[in-house]
Write a structure and sequence with these properties.
mainly alpha, flat, about 50% helix
Length: about 60
Amino acid sequence: MPPQVRAGISMLAQTGDDALAPGPARLADDLAAGRRHTRYADLLTLHSIEVGYRLVGADH
């Protein structure tokens, strides 16, 4: 994830690189092995999902 994107996500911006580094490798491995699809197949059938994130924008 580019640093400028990570900086805009408070939880990620406050977490050190050492803690975040294993995540992308695990995700890539899960995707390649099909585990991600198996684990979350029920989400593919949903029309919408509430995950609690909000994007707020403002013009100055």
